[in-house]
Amino acid sequence: MVGDGLWLIRGADAPIARDNGGAIANIALIATDAGPVLIDAGPSLRYGEALQALAKTLTGKPVARVYLTHLHPDHSYGDAAFAPAIVAATPGLIATLTRDGPGFADGMYRLLGDWMRGTELRIPAHVVSSPQEVVGGRTFRMLPLSGHSADDLAILDEATGTLVAGDLVFHDRAPSTPHADLSTWRRSLDTLKGLGHRAPAIGSTGSTPRCAGR
Ligand SMILES: [Zn+2]
Questions:
Q1: Residue 211 counted as domain residue
Q2: Which of 81, 90, 97, 213 has the fewest beta carbons under 10 Å from its own?
Q3: Is position 69 within any domain?
Q4: Which residue numbers delimit the Metallo-beta-lactamase domain (predicted)?
């Protein structure tokens, strides 16, 4: 637990590979009265199901909402375990996942083999369109940015002041850049810096590139 009702499920500090099953993204799990909120869903159906089980164990309730921060499959493909109605993303990300998301499957199956069995990316049906969302009495500030990819969603948990920055923030490691626009990314980091969030940001940590862009 890294904050009040907030857990970090840490990914491996390594590239996507068979020995880690692609579980390299950091996932945030946040308790609310309506059930826990996940920020990102991991790489596969199997991982998404494990998250669902963990969420139930930690909070006693099934997952109420899953926010996807960006298109990369180590963050998004685990949404296969959840009903599309509770999976949320910005309109830009929904359009990109609809167009390009299925194309990532071949590469993920090639890298991960059996880990990916049954995984089928779900297109989010909950559209993030306002500056904040309230789930079970807990307020989340929505920060649609870009730079690491064309559509990056950072989320501020107002209750703890914790910023969940997806792959916009890499700590002690080389950022992954297959879909990056570096000048836009710098502007987004300035925006995040200006938030004055209280708790440490949850982003990507480690020393090697983590995100599979293709
Ligand atoms: Zn990424």
A1: no
A2: 213
A3: yes
A4: 24-207
Residue 125 sits in a domain whose CATH number is 3.60.15.10
The count of domains in the chain is 1
Q: State in Å: Cα 152 to ligand 1 middle.
A: 9
Which amino acid belongs to residue 14? Answer: A
Q: How far is the CA of 168 from the centre of ligand 1 (A)?
A: 8
CA 14 / ligand 1 centre spacing (Å): 13
Distance 60 CA to ligand 1 centre (A): 30
Structure-block tokens of residue 202: 């949850």
Q: Which two tokens stand for residue 189?
A: 């980091």
* Alpha-carbon dihedral angle through residues 142, 168, 31, 43, given to the nearest 10 degrees: 120
26 within a domain of the structure (yes/no): yes
The DSSP symbol for 207 reads: S
The Å distance, Cα 77 to ligand 1 centre, comes to 12
Nearest to 188 by CA among 169, 207, 209, 161: 169
Residues spanned by the domain of 129: 6-205
